[in-house]
């Protein structure tokens, strides 16, 4: 699981440094695997200003550029087709290692077709900060000379990668990480109450549960007239930072909610749906062409999402190609359901599908997040893509929680040797959202819905 430091700050108010956060993660039981700081990786690259870009005297595709840099005025020979006077670009001084090309510039100026070049101007792909390789990075002219490239590209944000243990699926969302860090003393947890979307018309998509043992609850709503363009820059930057390539507003919102709240969603092009959307078990001989373009055999014990035409998805695993959203989608139906973890895991193993949805559902997704996750997605979609939202359709009910857990505070000292005050134990448990019923020597704890390990 990856997240950025600024993303974490959406959910925790803290003055802690990166080192403090890492120490607190270890204290909370989160094993950090890697920390990538683009500010360090890209420290050699800075913003420059191209003052002149003249044709090379001996090469039609090269330009001789006069460039203002942090190191003074430099002459740089550039082969990028977009090199021009007046542009703001990224400068690499002599001797710099170019990660995307896996070589270092010479430490002394070198002649390119007879003209000396004192450094390089780079594309985002060449510095491994993006995929654009058609020319050198063309930055906003308002960015000051000498600005670090990481800052100019919106990448001045450490990325933390840690191992999620199978019993803690709540750590598969940045919100869950922040909750535990706050309880461990890293700061104050910031709760985000999701505004309920009431909707202005009845949802025309009917939902039916024919296999409640596989899908006990299914919430959905329609957004009409949405513009499925690019997602906002801040969302794209966060997704890219954790290794997710932005696609479109609708796809990015579902990915973002999954990463932020550990709540997988699915978006259907409503114009492609035929009749009632049903959660049922698979049928003999049934197949699904999934959004990865592959065809899968459906077993009779698998949870299938279907419409009147047949299977359109494997519940909790992957959606189907026939109802996938595209850039042309204007009406979208958002699914926020709860799928049985064991059945999801078996379906994933049988099909060989490895998806973020499967990874979360087979470990356990907070059933209470069905409606909140739907409302959050609807709010983001309408904020950045417009459209009109229907009233939600909700079928089924949330599975009941297990009985309370009996906890003896005296056992902390007896079993661990740690001297923890009763008031501190109570604060930590409340920060972790446990309900506490004090009965003297024993406390009865009701675990929150997202804690499947209790």
From TrEMBL:
One of its GO terms (molecular function) is tRNA binding. InterPro entries: B3/B4_tRNA-bd, DNA-bd_dom_put_sf, NA-bd_OB-fold, Phe-tRNA-ligase_IIc_bsu, Phe-tRNA-ligase_IIc_bsu_bact, Phe-tRNA_synthase-like_B3/B4, tRNA-bd_dom, tRNA_bind_bactPheRS. SUPFAM superfamilies: Nucleic acid-binding proteins, PheT/TilS domain, Putative DNA-binding domain. Residues 400-454 form the B5 domain. PROSITE patterns: B5, TRBD. It comes from the Bacteria. Its main location: cytoplasm. SMART domains: B3_4, B5. Residues 39-150 form the TRNA-binding domain. It catalyses: tRNA(Phe) + L-phenylalanine + ATP = L-phenylalanyl-tRNA(Phe) + AMP + diphosphate + H(+). One of its GO terms (cellular component) is phenylalanine-tRNA ligase complex. Keywords: Cytoplasm, Ligase, RNA-binding, tRNA-binding. The keyword Cytoplasm applies. Belongs to the phenylalanyl-tRNA synthetase beta subunit family. Type 1 subfamily. Tetramer of two alpha and two beta subunits. This is Phenylalanine--tRNA ligase beta subunit. It comes from Hyphomonas adhaerens.
């Amino acid at each position: 699981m990856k997240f950025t430091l600024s993303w974490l700050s959406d959910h925790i108010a803290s003055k802690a440094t990166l080192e403090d956060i890492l120490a607190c993660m270890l204290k909370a039981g989160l094993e950090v695997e890697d920390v990538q700081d683009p500010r360090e990786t890209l420290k050699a690259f800075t913003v420059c200003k191209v003052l002149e870009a003249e044709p090379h005297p001996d090469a039609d595709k090269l330009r001789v550029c006069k460039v203002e840099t942090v190191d003074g005025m430099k002459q740089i020979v550039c082969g990028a087709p977009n090199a021009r006077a007046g542009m703001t670009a990224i400068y690499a001084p002599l001797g710099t290692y170019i990660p995307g090309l896996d070589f270092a510039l010479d430490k002394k100026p070198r002649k390119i077709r007879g003209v000396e070049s004192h450094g390089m101007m780079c594309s985002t792909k060449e510095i491994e900060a993006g995929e654009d390789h058609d020319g050198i990075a063309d930055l906003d002219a308002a960015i000051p000379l000498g600005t670090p490239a990481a800052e100019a590209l919106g990448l001045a944000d450490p990325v933390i990668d840690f191992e999620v243990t199978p019993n803690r699926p709540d750590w598969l969302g940045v919100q869950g990480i922040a909750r535990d860090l706050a309880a461990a003393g890293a700061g104050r947890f910031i709760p985000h109450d999701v505004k309920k979307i009431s909707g202005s018309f009845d949802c025309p998509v009917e939902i039916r549960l024919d296999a409640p043992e596989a899908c006990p609850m299914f919430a959905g709503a329609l957004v009409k007239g949405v513009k499925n363009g690019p997602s906002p820059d801040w969302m794209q930057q966060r997704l890219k930072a954790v290794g997710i390539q932005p696609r479109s507003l609708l796809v990015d919102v579902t990915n973002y909610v999954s990463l932020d709240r550990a709540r997988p969603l699915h978006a259907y092009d409503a114009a492609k749906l035929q009749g009632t959307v049903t959660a049922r078990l698979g049928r003999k001989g049934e197949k699904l062409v999934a959004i990865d373009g592959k065809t899968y055999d459906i077993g009779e014990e698998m949870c299938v999402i279907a419409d009147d035409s047949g299977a359109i998805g494997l519940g909790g695993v992957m959606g189907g190609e026939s109802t996938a959203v595209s850039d042309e989608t204007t009406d979208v139906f958002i699914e926020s359901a709860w799928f049985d973890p064991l059945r999801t895991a078996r379906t994933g193993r049988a099909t060989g599908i490895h998806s973020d949805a499967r990874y979360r559902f087979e470990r356990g997704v907070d059933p209470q997040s069905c409606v909140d996750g739907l409302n959050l997605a609807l709010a983001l979609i309408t904020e950045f893509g417009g459209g009109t939202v229907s009233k939600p359709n909700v079928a089924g009910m949330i599975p009941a929680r297990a009985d309370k857990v009996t906890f003896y505070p005296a056992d902390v000292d007896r079993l661990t040797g740690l001297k923890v005050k009763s008031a501190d134990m109570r604060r930590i448990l409340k920060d972790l959202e446990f309900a506490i019923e004090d009965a003297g020597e024993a406390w009865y704890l009701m675990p929150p819905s997202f804690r499947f390990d209790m």
